[in-house]
Design brief:
Zinc Finger, Delta Prime, domain 3; 2 strands; 9 helices; mainly alpha; DNA_pol3_clamp-load_cplx_C; two-stranded parallel ribbon; single chain; nucleus; elongated; 160 residues; Helicase, Ruva Protein, domain 3; 2% strand; 76% helix
Length: 160
């Protein structure tokens, strides 16, 4: 897929670095049409010089640094840090669905959580997803799920 994107960039005179290609692959989840759409949008936005940050901005995905900050906040045991982090997400206008998908992937891979904690969080994420599908307020659901994550990260023996 990257090879094809490189060919498109060459034909369209778009400058695109390796990190941007990898980011396009990641945010499109292997869908070539999505990758091309993101590439076109990023190229028109930046006058033909596409980088990873621009691709993330165009796609609405959260940067790796913000995902890393999630883990720092969860392990900080300082609720005020959680409030600031959540406020930042809300004010920056990140899509709650996209953010929750990314955080869920992050949690599943987090070796500091045991299977019981991951199971409880999976259930909470499913409930949050259902609430959002039913039209619930995104900000309230975001604050609720992040608060729940915070509690699970703090607990050694989670309770359902």
């Amino acid at each position: 897929m990257i090879k094809r994107l490189e060919e498109i960039c060459e034909k369209e005179s778009i400058e695109c670095d390796e990190a941007a290609y990898r980011t396009l692959l990641q945010v499109s989840q292997g869908d070539m049409r999505k990758a091309i759409t993101y590439l076109q949008s990023a190229a028109s936005y930046t006058q033909g010089k596409v980088d990873s940050v621009t691709v993330l901005d165009i796609s609405g995905r959260v940067s790796d640094s913000l995902l890393d900050r999630f883990q720092e906040v969860m392990k900080s045991n300082i609720y005020k840090d959680l409030e600031k982090y959540t406020d930042h997400l809300v004010y920056e206008g990140y899509g709650v669905d996209t953010f929750l998908d990314q955080i869920y992937e992050y949690i599943v891979d987090d070796e500091s959580l045991n299977d019981a904690q991951k199971a409880i969080l999976s259930m909470k994420f499913a409930q949050t997803d259902k609430a959002l599908e039913d039209g619930s307020n995104e900000e309230i659901q975001l604050r609720a799920i992040l608060s729940h994550c915070f509690q699970i990260y703090k607990s050694k023996e989670p309770k359902i």
